[in-house]
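Structural prep section.
Before we set up the soaks we want a predicted structure of the protein with nicotinamide-adenine-dinucleotide in place, mainly to decide which crystallisation condition to try first. Input record follows.
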Amino acid sequence: MELKVKTKEREYPIQFKEDFSALRQALEEAGLGGRKVFVVTDSHVAALYGSQVEAQLGDAYGGCVAFPAGEDQKNLQTITTFYDAFLAAHMDRKSVVVALGGGVPGDMAGFAAATFQRGIPFFQVPTTLLAQVDSSVGGKVGVDYRGHKNMVGAFYQPHFVYINLKTLKTLPAREFAAGMAEVVKYGLIWDEAFFTFLEEQKEAILAQEEAPLTQMLYHCCRIKAEVVSQDEKEGGLREVLNFGHTIGHAVETEKHFALLHGECVALGSRAILALCEKEGRISAKDRQRAEALFDFFGLPKTVDGLSAEQVYEQMFFDKKVRNGVIQFVLLQGIGRAERTSQVGRDEVISAIKTILE
Ligand code: NAD
Ligand code: GLY
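Run finished without errors. Recording the tokens verbatim:
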């Protein structure tokens, strides 16, 4: 199974596999045969999959750097440890970086590849649900800066995305749930039929039954590939993928990364759903349907220790702020997103209050 992402730089495949055995072939097909490949990963993923990937790369393996897992490591200091490792391994412009792991190593390895010697090729091997359905596709790479989410980064497309579906078997339940926040997002912003599929298949998805899980992953990547192919650098349409993220990122920062990214996206989505219902954009029933899916996957309903004003102020660090005005992604019914800056402060504050304890 394969999908294609079409960008200005190149068209690249997203491959869906059951193991790592076709990794070398994928490299060849991407025109990267005969190059040294350096693995960037985190401590958990290195222990779980590092040796399998090394074995598959064979004589193409050029070394590995593994940072301590977690969002609090997603910063420029960690990036300098990658550069040091690249230098020690004598990497040059023909060398290749592989991002192995979730969205944190994915975003950081991509950023290091984008900037080392002004840019060397990289590819993504995502191992979390969130990374497989979202972060590994589309070329957003970067780091947090002084706690602000993804403040420093670039658009830099991978040469290919290699999804080994079986890696989800080792993913902790809480991480799987966090990934489901981004999955539900696709249904809400893009595709009501997919949303209904999630409602109908939720038990099977949670049990990681192969057919519905694969169908779900493929569908999410298809939507993401379609959006990115139309608007690679977020000139407009791509902003819809940030549904729930402006409030979510603000919560993530204000909680100093105590909550997972996907959990914050769920919280941000719940707040926006409340706002959409209040504005008559969605029915109470549709809001309830979305809330029920988040609930089913065990995603948080509320967050403690924050004030609405504090979250609101933090939202102005969002990359969708234009000339001091926040751009919102709202729904007009399930499956239809709309971008607008016409949302007043009071409406936002009362939406945020619906997710505060
Ligand atoms: P993560 O990379 O920190 O992974 C979560 C945890 O799961 C980590 O502890 C990791 O070690 C562990 N893990 C990874 N794969 C595993 C496996 N197969 N088995 C067991 N444990 C495993 O976090 P994430 O949720 O994958 O990604 C969140 C990040 O992605 C955030 O920084 C967010 O900003 C970013 N993001 C980027 C984009 C994008 O378009 N670039 C989109 C969405 C999110
Ligand atoms: N996750 C948002 C985007 O890729 O644009």
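Observations: The longest helix spans residues 210-230.
Flagged for discussion at group meeting.
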